[in-house]
């Protein structure tokens, strides 16, 4: 030993002290970092360069032991192990090493070897966890002169409990797959491959309806098998799979070959959410030293109860040649998953325990690094990539030569089960133009319908798209088109844009084609939308109309204008007449601002509609309304009267109306809470220039109404707008 000379064993307390004088406190390797944390690791360490071992005798002895270890660890014949000396560790009383995994410093590292040198000590037991099983290796009384060798797989969690007396001295070695290893897993048994093939065939054949965003039952696209051991980006490769993983993957690769599947290795990031019960005494999860009086373990103690949620993400894909692959969906669905070793048996790399949270109970989040063998029928690659990039998929399909219709059909069919979700997530308008273009090449009407489903009527935004639509209607007929538009106009979410603005252009394109099916569709669309717009107007009429607010009912009036414009574009005189009649009929009930807004929008909507409306009875009605506003004398500066119809039917309406129409500016009105609230609501809805507050005094409290001077400014602004509107309207032709 550099600095102190030769050591004899069993180690004497004097030599132990000397050893300690040349040692340094151990750092602790946590994945990529090296930390000094005496609460995790508290030992003395001596670097390999300072230690010289009597190689002549030790080398053959170690080689013999390595052969035994190789067999015991389950490495097959032909797979030799090399031991690389790592360090010498010295544990004095109280020193320990908390549960950890050794960082795999090279891809070839398969296990750790601990050689315990002869010395007297108690405590310091080594606990190793593998596949949910824990083994404790204790120093026995008579072992003072023994050399003990302990080896465990590199991904095992292990720990050393505090030494109680004496000193514990250990040499640690990294066990590597030997450079001369000729090991290749034996060819898998035919019976096994037969059985697995059947299971995989069934997996890829049975349609399920279980996936997010899926609209029709389809078999899982992939089979994802989680491996037993843990791997890092560096250590994951086809040639370096550990033990059982190597055998299993060899069998699965044989299956993949038989079923014409492609196969991959990938890293799997697993997150689990468990409910748990906190342990207050007794039962504990996690590591506790076997000796009860030793309480060095301060981790949370809990018992897992139910697995509530699992999400698995795959990344770092390697194809069968070991090349990187991208563009495959990362999330693994439960229907794709297979595993032999549950995560519970592994050590999570991160875990978060939420103690008692009132109603929520206790939960633990756990994250694991795992790896997976993934396979899928070669023909599924397209559908899988399309899930990540539907834009790419549509471009690929458009690039197919027109002669390859069967290829197009089969690829489109593969995309359909999830298409509504996949394509529905795209925003880009150009994507939808391509989608529509491609649909003209689809023969089957049902496929074409499902393919176009995500588009939505509001996206028919340019001439080329409308022309494609004409082609489709001609090909599949009006019935098909009506079904499509019924779906397209459903507005899946509240923020889906309205499609009525595009109706006029669409009707025009349909009618210009002169195809009977297209004309029939235009008529149907128009009548349907006209009805919807009328209903919307009737609904608005039932509501309290705002005072002198030209934009108060902009939505229903704009909708009606779109419909009238579409009817004009399609020269649909029936629809035009019907809508005009409806409006004239309703005009008595429409407040002047509403009516004027409607006319303004209609005249501005399109030249064709303007031409239709000029001189119409509607135009005359509008001119009368304008004149009525403009001819009325301006409000006198002390005139506080407000005339405005109130929609409500409550008993207080009378009093309120009387106050509004009176020259009075104020009203203090004791009212119970319910009636006060109702009146607040009525005044707000009517947008009246009246301040309304509650004086929190007396019983009942007092509703205070105060007419506001904005009465005068708002009225002036309104008259100015009406004036501008009058000059923008075409002159009424002389009768
Ligand atoms: O001292 C031991 O037995 C184990 C040491 C160890 O786990 C390590 O060095 O990583
Ligand atoms: Fe270790």
UniProtKB/TrEMBL annotation:
Domain Fe2OG dioxygenase residues, every copy: 80-177
UniProt-listed InterPro entries: Oxoglu/Fe-dep_dioxygenase_dom (IPR005123), Pro_4_hyd_alph_FE2OG_OXY (IPR044862)
PANTHER family in the record: FE2OG DIOXYGENASE DOMAIN-CONTAINING PROTEIN, MYND-TYPE DOMAIN-CONTAINING PROTEIN
Residues in coiled coil: none
Matching PROSITE patterns: FE2OG_OXY
Pfam families according to UniProt: 2OG-FeII_Oxy_3
Organism placement in taxonomy: Bacteria, Pseudomonadati, Myxococcota, Polyangia, Polyangiales
Protein name, as recorded: Fe2OG dioxygenase domain-containing protein
């Amino acid at each position: 030993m550099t600095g102190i000379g030769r050591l004899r064993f069993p180690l004497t307390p004097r030599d132990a002290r000397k050893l300690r004088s040349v040692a340094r406190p151990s750092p602790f390797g946590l994945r990529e970092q090296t930390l000094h944390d005496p609460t995790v690791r508290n030992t003395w360490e001596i670097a390999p360069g300072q230690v010289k071992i009597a190689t002549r005798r030790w080398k053959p002895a170690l080689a013999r032991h390595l052969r035994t270890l190789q067999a015991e660890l389950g490495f097959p014949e032909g797979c030799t192990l090399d031991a690389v000396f790592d360090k010498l560790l010295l544990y004095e009383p109280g020193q320990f090493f908390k549960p950890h995994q050794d960082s795999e410093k090279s891809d070839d590292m398969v296990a750790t070897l601990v050689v315990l040198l002869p010395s007297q000590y108690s405590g310091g037991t080594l606990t190793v966890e593998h596949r949910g099983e824990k083994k404790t290796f204790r120093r026995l009384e008579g072992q003072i002169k023994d050399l003990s060798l302990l080896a465990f797989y590199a991904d095992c969690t292990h720990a050393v409990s505090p030494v109680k007396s004496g000193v514990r001295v250990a040499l640690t070695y990294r066990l590597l797959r030997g450079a001369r290893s000729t090991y290749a897993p034996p060819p898998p048994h035919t019976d096994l491959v037969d059985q697995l093939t059947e299971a995989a065939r069934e997996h890829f054949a049975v349609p399920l309806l279980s996936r997010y965003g899926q609209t029709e039952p389809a078999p899982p696209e992939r089979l994802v098998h989680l491996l037993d051991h843990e791997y890092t980006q560096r250590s994951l490769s086809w040639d370096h799979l550990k033990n059982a993983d190597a055998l299993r993957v060899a069998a699965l690769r044989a299956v993949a070959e038989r079923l014409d599947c492609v196969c991959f290795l990938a890293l799997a990031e697993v997150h689990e959410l468990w409910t748990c019960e906190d342990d207050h005494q007794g039962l504990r999860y996690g590591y506790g030293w076997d000796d009860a009086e030793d309480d060095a373990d301060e981790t949370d103690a809990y018992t897992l109860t139910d697995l509530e949620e699992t999400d698995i993400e795959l990344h770092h894909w390697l194809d069968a040649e070991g090349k990187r692959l991208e563009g495959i969906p990362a999330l693994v669905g439960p229907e794709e998953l297979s595993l032999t070793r549950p995560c519970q048996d592994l050590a999570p790399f991160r875990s978060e325990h939420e103690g008692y949270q009132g109603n929520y109970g206790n939960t633990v989040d756990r994250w694991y690094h795992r790896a997976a063998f993934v396979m899928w029928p070669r023909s599924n690659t397209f559908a899988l990539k399309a899930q990540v990039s539907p834009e790419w998929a549509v471009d690929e399909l458009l690039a197919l030569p027109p002669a390859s219709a069967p290829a197009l059909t089969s690829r489109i069919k593969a995309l359909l089960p999830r298409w509504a979700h996949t394509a529905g997530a795209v925003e880009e308008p150009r994507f939808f133009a391509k989608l529509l273009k491609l649909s003209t090449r689809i023969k089957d009407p049902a496929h074409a319908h499902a393919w176009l489903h995500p588009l939505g009527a509001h996206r028919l935004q340019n001439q080329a798209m409308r022309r494609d639509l004409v082609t489709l209607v001609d090909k599949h007929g009006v019935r098909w088109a009506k079904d499509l538009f019924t779906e397209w106009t459903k507005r899946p979410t509240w923020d889906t844009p309205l499609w009525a603005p595009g109706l006029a252009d669409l009707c025009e394109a349909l009618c210009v084609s002169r195809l009977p099916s297209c004309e029939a569709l235009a008529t149907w669309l128009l009548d349907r939308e006209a009805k919807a717009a009328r209903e919307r107007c009737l609904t608005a009429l039932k509501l309290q109309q705002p005072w002198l607010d030209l934009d108060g009912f902009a939505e229903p009036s704009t909708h009606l204008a779109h419909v009238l414009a579409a009817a004009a574009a399609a020269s649909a005189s029936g629809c035009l007449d019907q809508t005009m009649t409806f409006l004239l009929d309703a005009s008595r009930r429409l407040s002047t601002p509403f009516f004027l807004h409607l006319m303004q929008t209609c005249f501005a909507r399109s030249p064709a509609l303007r031409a239709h409306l000029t001189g119409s009875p509607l135009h005359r009605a509008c001119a009368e309304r304008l004149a009525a506003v403009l001819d009325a004398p301006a409000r006198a500066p002390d005139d506080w009267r407000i005339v405005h119809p109130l929609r409500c039917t409550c008993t207080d309406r009378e009093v309120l109306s009387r106050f509004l129409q009176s020259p009075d500016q104020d009203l203090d009105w004791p009212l119970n809470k319910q009636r006060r609230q109702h009146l607040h609501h009525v005044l707000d809805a009517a947008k009246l220039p009246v301040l309304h507050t509650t004086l929190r005094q007396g019983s009942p409290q007092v509703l205070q109404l105060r007419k506001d001077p904005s009465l005068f400014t708002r009225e002036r602004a309104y008259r100015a707008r009406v004036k501008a509107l009058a000059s923008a309207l075409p002159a009424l032709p002389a009768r």
